[in-house]
Amino acid sequence: MPTGTPPNPPRTDTSRAQPARVYDWLLGGKDNYPVDEAVGRKLPPQAKDAARQNRAFMHRAAAWLADQGVDQFLDIGTGIPTEPNLHQIVQRVVPEARIVYVDNDPIVLRHAEALLVSSPEGSTDYVQADVRDPAAILRHARDVLDFTRPVALSLIALLHFLPDDQDPQGIVRELVDALPPGSHLVLSHAASDLHADLARQVTEEYARAGIRLGFRTHAEVARFFDGLDLVEPGLVTAPEWFRDAPAPPAEDSGIYAGVARVPAGGTA
């Protein structure tokens, strides 16, 4: 059951492209505006592949964690609902699972009711917040999730929207430090070192729309997992990450993905 009702959404700015709406267009969704479509159409065709690969990785990682008995999820940078959503995947395995969704885009808030349709045994909630204020996110999440038990923190295709001057490493560290042992970090991130020309093109097109990006190398993405135990197969491209399931079709990718566990001694 939902644990709250979203307030009236703030006015949606249709004069500027927004990452969640561009992502929706890349996935073939309808909840975007001409300004978002214009950005999407200027991106290389591989951008649609990356969006699909990100989504598929989230599905596989969430299903695997649910199979391991994880029943609490904090999903930051949720984006516009696209079925199956994380709670639908998880609650098929663990009906009593609790999920907190977080995003800062008003259009996502408009669709929050779809994210709040939980299984009768479980619970979902939505909070309008920015990942750059992790303390506020954690305050709200603690109203729904029990931080004395493992929590899966999901950061899918989010951190490359935080350039280094916004301290993404510090943000992730604050979030992960709040997680008890046995929790997991689920993360995907655009690569700067796999297809450098394409990465440069994508970065430039988003910049023209007023959206700053910070694509990173494998070593830079790996730093987000410092102090954690990476789950096999480690930090790989999104299509290469799978566990206890048939391997996805092999394909080229410019997205790194990984899942890591908070060790028994914590991250300190």
Automatic annotation (TrEMBL):
Pfam family, one: Methyltransf_19
GO BP annotation list: methylation
Superkingdom assignment: Bacteria
UniProt entry tagged with the keyword Transferase: yes
Entries under SUPFAM superfamilies matching the protein: S-adenosyl-L-methionine-dependent methyltransferases
Protein name according to UniProt: SAM-dependent methyltransferase
Keywords: Methyltransferase, Transferase
UniProt GO molecular function: methyltransferase activity
Coiled coil: none
